[in-house]
Amino acid sequence: MRAGELRHRIAVLSQALAANDTGEEVETWTLDGYVWGMATPKTGREWFVKGDVSPEVTHFVQLRYKRSLDTTDRLLAPIESTTLGAALATDDGTSATLTVALQPGAAFDIRIEDELINVSAGFGTTSITIARGQHGSTAATHLNGAAVSRLVALDIESILDTDLRNRETIVAAREHG
Prior knowledge:
By secondary structure, the protein is an all-beta fold. It has strands at about 10-20, 25-40, 45-50, 50-55, 60-65, 75-85, 95, 110, 115-120, 125-130, 145-165, 170-175.
């Protein structure tokens, strides 16, 4: 591997079960840390297996070795970037301004420094509606011009290779949702 290939910070989320307001168990995802890596999109397709639609692997992800990584984890890998158009204070609530609009689509997560944020509205515009401190991260103050990365959620399908000598792991993943 050449230096610089693993230049993206990829969030590793661990699955947990928690009770919601009615006491029902629901799946939640908690930040387990960041690893340096690179996600490479692959052509995806679906096929029918025993009457069910089965998705194909959509990404290969090369990561710095992480001992606890397994197929129950989810990765959040950057796919698009912009910057903040205005500073964001710790107590700023539900909106943020970007310098360039991110591609429109359904709700998605972004990362600003170490904070994970969910975007629920404003797709394709520079004014977005957000929920801060997601997946166990902490809301923080961010300066005007701070880097913003749009993240794709990837469910690990299999761990293809672990090279302890070079301290890297390659996984096959499927885009969540």
